[in-house]
Amino acid sequence: PRVAVIVVAAGSGTRLGAGAPKAFVGIDDHTILRHCLDRVFAARLAQVVVVAPEERVGEALTDAQEAAGARRELVSVVAGGSTRQQSVAAGLAAVWPDVEIVLVHDAARALAPAELIDRVVDAVERTGWGVVPVLPVVDTIKRVDGELITGVVDRSELASAQTPQGFRRDILETAYRVAGEEHTDDSALVAAAGHPIASVEGDARAFKITTPADLQRARTLISPAPA
Ligand code: CTP
Ligand code: MG
User: Fold this and answer.
1) Where is this site: Transition state stabilizer (predicted)?
2) What's 164's domain CATH number?
3) Does a structural domain hold residue 134?
4) Which SS3 state, helix, strand or coil, does residue 167 take?
5) Cβ distance 212 to 105 under 8 Å?
6) Could you tell me the distance, in angstroms and rounded to a whole number, from the CA of residue 18 to the centre of ligand 2?
7) Pocket probe mutation, ligand 1, options 6, 7, 8, max atoms within 8 Å of Cβ
């Protein structure tokens, strides 16, 4: 099937606080967006749509074309919106007519490997369902009411969700068309439209760079091991 990946990179990065929109902050001499796209372009896909802040569209195009190499005709860059959901909708509008499967991926998950991307595509192809990569929750999770601990949640029925999340294109488009309120992620939006969602195994490398400590972790992971 023809696969498009929408890479949402239009956020401001308030929690990272690096003085620039998060996707354009350097991990090494390459940006978060560029690292993400290097991995995206190692996966099987037909189109990559990057959603960037309006004033960074040119910079995003440069990053995307460098990551694409000889496949630069696969790249589209569009301006995002003020919420992630609006940014995804903007990306979706730029997906080519013959694309059958759409993945939505956070640029902030810069180190998510190509094999994770391919695993999500394979699962969408196999099931026709929405697909979310998940990891088990490692901490004991408490229910709290202010200072008071009111209970413990059974960890075995919880998982933490990552991206890329994958969908049949027709299902994702319909779900976005009918979506009323803001949803926490694309799979919640698609589930709200009545479609089943499956999980596949996530990847620790697909953690989201949110805080300065996360950026430091990414820097450590990509730096060469000491001799
Ligand atoms: N995103 C986007 N458009 C928005 C908000 C977020 O494209 N209006 C993207 C971000 O660029 C990021 C992904 O959605 O790749 C996940 O969002 P998050 O980690 O929350 O990034 P930011 O919103 O930039 O960070 P913060 O919430 O700390 O401001
Ligand atoms: Mg945000």
Assistant:
1) 15, 22
2) 3.90.550.10
3) yes
4) strand
5) no
6) 14
7) 8
